[in-house]
Design brief:
Elements: E1 4-9, H1 12-23, E2 40-43, E3 48-53, H2 58-63, E4 69-73, H3 74-80, E5 85-90, E6 96-102, H4 106-111, E7 116-120, H5 123-133, E8 138-142, H6 149-152, E9 158-163, H7 167-171, E10 175-183, E11 185-190, H8 191-196, H9 198-213
Parallel strand pairs: 1-3, 1-4, 7-8, 7-9
Antiparallel strand pairs: 2-3, 4-11, 5-11, 6-9, 6-10
Bound molecules: 1-O-pyrophosphono-5-O-phosphono-alpha-D-ribofuranose.
1-O-pyrophosphono-5-O-phosphono-alpha-D-ribofuranose binds next to strand 9 and helix 7.
Length: about 220
């Protein structure tokens, strides 16, 4: 039997995913050592391997088949736009929304169909939303974090970003102006892996489905 390899997006999503996997009998003791500098962990008995990666790299590992299964946010999947990935499960946590946000004064600017500047960690999602869905020409500026700063210091008119509780926006005098789509944590599978290892992979997917949705 060959190894099935999981790529998990580092952080909260990985923690929650490992908790779910444990509940369906998939454990990885090696991974629990907080001081370890190891990058890849193995469950020899089940022939499974796990590694943590930066969220944006998870779809890449899965597209190339370096990982069979990836667990990452829908935001990252949309932004990376990789082929060869098959989204098999909505894990139901990490729920948030992709939104256009800004100061109330930007609401009017948005409606005028003028060329505005949009700052985002998600330039592809921002472009797709404005160019394809809204038919509006905008200038997209890529940032790497704390995007809420951009409209405050006049780098941009609005931002495209994730809103979870809305606290960050509120504390910075900003709000949601338009909603792009809902987001949550998803499981993706390499298309070839799904064909070759269908039984093993679908067993994991179905066990998780039962656990999460009680179906
Ligand atoms: C995310 C997102 C928002 C914030 C939204 O940022 O980019 O800034 O969380 O959460 P809230 O609606 O509950 O306030 P993250 O914490 O990942 O940091 P970053 O902006 O530096 O990437």
């Amino acid at each position: 039997m060959r190894y099935l390899t999981f790529a998990l997006a580092k952080g909260r999503l990985a923690k929650k995913t490992l908790g779910y996997l444990e509940q369906i009998g998939i454990t990885c003791e090696e991974m629990k050592d907080p001081d370890t500098r190891k990058l890849i962990f193995t469950n020899e008995e089940l022939k499974l391997r796990f590694f943590l990666a930066k969220a944006g790299d998870v779809p890449t590992y899965v597209e190339y088949g370096a990982a069979d299964i990836g667990v990452v946010g829908k935001d990252t999947i949309m932004e990376e736009g990789r082929d060869n990935l098959y989204e098999v499960l909505d894990l139901g946590f990490g729920k948030c929304r992709m939104c256009v946000c800004g100061p109330e004064s930007a609401r009017e600017v948005l409606q005028k169909n003028e060329i505005i500047r949009v700052a985002s960690k998600y330039p592809n999602i921002a472009k797709d939303y404005f160019f394809t869905k809204k038919n509006q020409t905008v200038e997209v500026v890529k940032l790497n974090g704390s995007v809420e700063l951009a409209p405050i210091v006049d780098l941009s008119d609005v931002i495209v970003d994730i809103v979870e509780t809305g606290t960050t926006l509120k504390e910075n005098g900003l709000g949601v102006l338009e909603e792009i789509c809902p987001l949550s944590c998803r499981m993706v599978v390499n298309r070839v892996s799904l064909k070759m290892e269908q039984e093993r992979i679908m067993k994991i997917v179905n066990d998780l489905k039962k656990l999460i949705y009680e179906v």
